[in-house]
Amino acid sequence: MYSEITSNKRRSVALVMFFIAFLIGLGYVYGRAIGDDTYSTIWLAIIVSIVSTMISYFAGDKIALATSGARAVAREENKYLWNLVENLTITSGMPMPKLYIIEDPAINAFATGRKPDKASVAVTRGALEKLENEELQGVLAHELS
Q: Which residues of the chain have pLDDT under 70?
């Protein structure tokens, strides 16, 4: 499992580097097409690619949660969900993630965050209402992994 985690991290870094290189390449091609001899389009592409990469790295989880319409859920609001996730995290030795509910009748869930201590798990209302206890535990265990 640890070799897979290392491989995934390596691939993620390669993907980010490819994204930066791709945007810089687009800046170069665009600059050549408009006759920019000062390379200002390349510098603009460098700045845009680095800024967008930093935003994705540091705020990607917040963007995903906001885009999906997820709202934070307190323990008192949904003890059932909290207890399921808390039991799974204690069993696996993980820190407790922030929990979110998406008001959608579809059965779905996702996890986000760049580190276990900054993780968030979002579950749709449909998953909470339609799945049996063991099924929901399986979905949550998958998201925590």
A: 1
